[in-house]
Specification:
InterPro entries: Cupin_1, Germin, Germin_Mn-BS, RmlC-like_jellyroll, RmlC_Cupin_sf. By secondary structure, the protein is α+β, with helices and mostly antiparallel strands. The protein is built from 3 helices and 10 strands, in the order H-E-E-E-E-E-E-E-E-E-E-H-H. It is globular, with a radius of gyration of 23 Å.
Amino acid sequence: MMMKNKVLILFFSALLSSTSYASNVNDFCVADLKGPDSLSGYPCLPPTTLTDDNFVFNLQPANTSQFPTIKAGISTAFVNEFPALNGLDISVAHVAFEKDGFFPMHSHPDATELIILVEGEITAGFVTGMNSIAYLKTLKPGDLMVIPPGHLHFVANSGNEKATGFATFSSSNPTIHSFNNIFANNIPSDILAQATFLDVAQVKNLKARFGGSN
């Protein structure tokens, strides 16, 4: 009898656990973008105000004229564009590269990135922080590459034609720390040259390219 009771307790515990998990899976919180953004995301719109359209988003193709300096473009479905992603730890972007286009070194400290190539050829890679090991691969259509969170990485069109694909992230609003930020600021060029192992002329050239000053 005692054994039977233990089995019943375990069964109902498992059932409650399963029900709780299902409930968590089905929970959602469509963002109220008028509210404050916090570490846990935006506040929720009242469920009674939602319609089917709140859960659908039309992701436009990326336009490479967006960033002519790097011959690349990105079209995002992050929480600010697609509020239904709020709190779900997922987002997606469409990316496009002209021949010789690239995204320079950058990182996403709060998100894993999964690159999915659709057309063309790209070379992507990341560098580990502990021992500076580089993982580098040329991707063909259908190839996927994962970039662990916080790792410096890049993507470059290594083919002879336009390349397009998708990048998915384990965050609804991934943070981007970009190489461009090093030069898109007003830190004096002589100080920045000292900090980056570049000469002042190179720093000034990069500042002009990325919108920096001084």
